[in-house]
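Ticket reopened. Same input as before:
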Amino acid sequence: MSMSDTAALAATRGRLSRHVSFLAYDNFRYLKLALAAVAGSIVLYVAVPPYGERYGGGWAGYTLGTVGALLILWLTWFGYKKRTYDPERKYLQPHGSGAPDSAHQAEDPSRLARRLSAHVYLGLALVVIATLHTGFHFGWNVHTLAYALMCLVIASGVYGVVAYVRYPRQMTENRQNMTMAQLQAQVVAIDAELRRRVMPMDDAMATIIRGSLDNTPIGGSMWRQVTGHYPDCGTVQAIARLQAMPDAGPGAIDDTWRLLRTKLDEKAALVFRLRRDVRFKALMDIWLYVHVPLTFALLAALMAHIVSVFYL
Amino acid sequence: MEVDVAFLSRRGTAIMRRSQRASGERVCIGRGTDNEVPLNDIHVGLRAAALILRDGVLTIDRLDNSPLEVNGSLVDTAPLKPGDEIRLGPYRIEILAPPDGCDGAIQIETVQPTAGVADRLGAGLPIGLARTGANKRLYAWTGFVVITIVCLAVPIFVLSGGMLHSWHKGAPNATLPTLVGLSWNPGSFSNAHRFFAADCTTCHEGAFAGVADKACLACHANVGTHTPHGAALAALGDRLASMRCADCHTEHRGIAGSVVSEASLCLGCHRNLKEAAPAADMQNVGGFPNAHPQFRATVVADAAQNATRRVQLGGSPPAIDRPGLKFEHKVHMDTMNYPVLVQAGRAVKDCGDCHVAEPAGQGFLPITYKNQCRSCHQLTFDAVSLPWQDGRVPHGDDAGVIAAVWNDYAGRALRAGAAASPAPSPAPTDIQAQVSAQAAAALRVVFDEKRGCALCHYSTGDNGTWDASKILADALPPKANPAHVVAAVKLPVRFLPNAVFDHASHRGATCESCHTVAVAVSNGTERLMVPGLDNCTQCHGAGDASFHAQSTCITCHDFHHSEFGLMRNSVAGAMQ
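Engineering reply: fixed in the latest deploy. New output:
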């Protein structure tokens, strides 16, 4: 490997390790762009009134509507680009001949973070542009339906932004430098230990431990994953039952009781972390089940809105 | 007893079998290591069951509280024969034919995998929302298709399928198709159009067709056009001819109505109309009130020719008014100063004594001799030194005055003979001559420069002066179609015919607050009392005024003038 390749890769790795939030991407470039678009829309709305009250038609109204519709299509396009994103393609290979230019790569317009930053800020600008396009006239019709769907999509997107800013850090702190697989492996090991320890013990103890081994769920329905609420956790119940047992007994059983209790506590802590991890992931994913379907409903309503305006 | 115990385990298609012998009084099965058949699973009790020979038959007894299932039924004890199946915890125990030397043979197999497989945590319950069965793609397609059908396909079907019905008395609107049509309605209807608004196709012709003029003309067929027929308007005329109703009249913009009131619509043409169409004699307008030209009153130029001219208002002093009558407001308004006239009921108290508002209150009834003048100016000859009474000439028929006087005397002569009325000297030779002489004497008073018609009217002679001798030179006996004596008079009813001014909406103001009465009558010369622009702009301001009455072009001016004919005809047929 040549010196330039080594240096370039080091530079690439170094750049990759410097995290820049998608909100602050490229020095808030897309925030500025969105603010400029909003300002331009307000100026247009105020300065070019139609005859009568402002509404979706007239010179300014049609311009705002066209810009809004094109924005909606472009914002939807992000979904496609997100799904076709290939991290290998852009970063790890030298760009063109010779050493890759880190500045050039930072401006590579197909970087997903760039697209996401633009998507978020221009999506927020769309609220203003579309609201000005309505002229603040709303009714029970397909036009307001399109607007309402757009607002719901944007609202779910705002939740998504908040989730993407908050939960990754909380997930990392929860994992404490371990992977999910490592945590699971630890739980399985504790289960094996419990099974081994309780094998020679009486049936009462075996029943208690069995409850923990058989019925400690992680994951489940959408509701369960998002709330992180597992009311019938076998491990929690085993701990409770163990706690409720009378203290009397020969010394050997006391030691084993303490060991079992310790192992159950360890397992419980790990299981709670696993469930929290599942919960954070679910909270980061749940909004897309609103955002994406409503986007396509919005596209249909937008089509109906535009066709109806020109059909009649 | 001796029992052959075989442990079976399967891996794919491979089967491994491990045999051992168990002997004892009874063969115990359980989790505990002291059992003859130890089963290494916590789901099995410490000492779960025992195999014994009872009366020579291999029997199984349940020893603890964990369930024992033999051939599908829960039992406490059961005799066994080869082929029977026992379930104990996760184990399936099959009874086989005992080999030689054994009392029984069992085959043990695990049918439920022991908990402890490393990936159990992931394989059991779904982790990740994608595995819960929620499907973004399904939801997205469902939403897209449903909304396309409900919001696009169904309305198109309803609109083009003739399912919407206009209002008919006694027939209710179709409910569901109406609701479907309303889902496309972008704004509320004007009040006057609501009675047919349930049927969109009343105005909207069809797919992507817009609203054609003929939809409006179906009800509004007699709407007038904007310019006189044949007016030379060049490019502006083409522009006017190509306008659609919908260019100025909007719908779905609220209940208040559909006429565009913004001045900018009119100013598009009227801003430079003077240059674009000089023959129209229109000033340029840049707006109201700031760039609106001074008003010009339309007054009579020549009553006989029916000619008018326009006089600029707002001057100081106001422009002279020449109505074709020798009328002075000052004289009449001074009558209040003469107690004799006041007592006789012949004093003019205020404007309303002569200027009578028409029933709607917009303007005033035309001034006529009969309604306004006759009560004081009776065309009799009481005060004149002629020896007859109640001679009365008709008004408004100046040619008939001569015949009326002649007929009066002719009638007296017919009734009473020549001696009935005193004859002027010298004595006439015959009745006709006598009647002519009497008539001429009376007509000399009637046509006198300072009395009779001349009191109010100008004559048709030079400079409007009265020369009785000249008039009477060849007037008697009266001829058919004599020449007119009195100059034609035409009193205008409206001085600003190009605008619509409604006195009724200004009834809170007094006459003097707008009409420059004091100035007009101050020096005896009759002047126009119609106020100019400055008077109006005291109260009226621009379309967006805050402290003046908001006024735009159509506040005072009409676009459609029915007196110019039908707009439809001048618009080359209804615009498509």
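Chain A has a mean pLDDT of 86. Chain A touches chain B through 62 residues (CB under 8 Å). Please confirm and we'll close it.
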